[in-house]
Amino acid sequence: MNNKIHVKTGDTVVILNGKERGKQGKIMAVSPKEGKVIVEGRNMVSKHVKARKMGEQGGIIKAEGAMYACKVQVVCPRCGKPTRVAHKIYEDGTKERICKKCGEAL
C-alpha cells in the first residue's frame, strides 16, 4: 500500500466535508501509515481522562481528532485558494511542491 500524503506539517489547509467544511486550519501532525492528519483547532472531540497521580485532575477535555488526509486540501499562500499540489524537478535534482493554480512554491 502506498502511504504518501499530499500535505505536510505546517501547511494551511481547508476542510472539504463534514461539520467543519470550508474552515481553514494548520496541520499539527501527519500519520502516513493511517492516512490521517490532525488540524489545529478543528474536528474537536471530547476525551475522557482519568487522574493518574495524586492531586492530578481527571475529567472531560476537548482535543483535536484525526481526520483522513483526503478530506483536506492545501491552501496556496500566494493566491489564497485551495489547490492541488504539483511537483517541479529542477536540473540539479531538487524537487519542489508548487501550486497548480498560480505556480508559486508551497
From TrEMBL:
Pfam family, one: ribosomal_L24
Tree of life domain: Bacteria
GO CC terms in record: ribosome
Entry keyword rRNA-binding: yes
UniProt-listed InterPro entries: KOW, Rib_uL2_dom2, Ribosomal_uL24, Ribosomal_uL24_C, Ribosomal_uL24_CS, Ribosomal_uL24_KOW, Translation_prot_SH3-like_sf
Keywords annotated in UniProt: Ribonucleoprotein, Ribosomal protein, RNA-binding, rRNA-binding
Residue ranges of domain KOW in the record: 6-33
SMART domains, per database record: KOW
General function of this protein: One of two assembly initiator proteins, it binds directly to the 5'-end of the 23S rRNA, where it nucleates assembly of the 50S subunit. One of the proteins that surrounds the polypeptide exit tunnel on the outside of the subunit.
Family per similarity comment: Belongs to the universal ribosomal protein uL24 family.
Subunit structure: Part of the 50S ribosomal subunit.
This protein's name: Large ribosomal subunit protein uL24
Native source organism of the sequence: Caproiciproducens galactitolivorans
Organism taxonomic ancestry: Bacteria, Bacillati, Bacillota, Clostridia, Eubacteriales
Gene: rplX
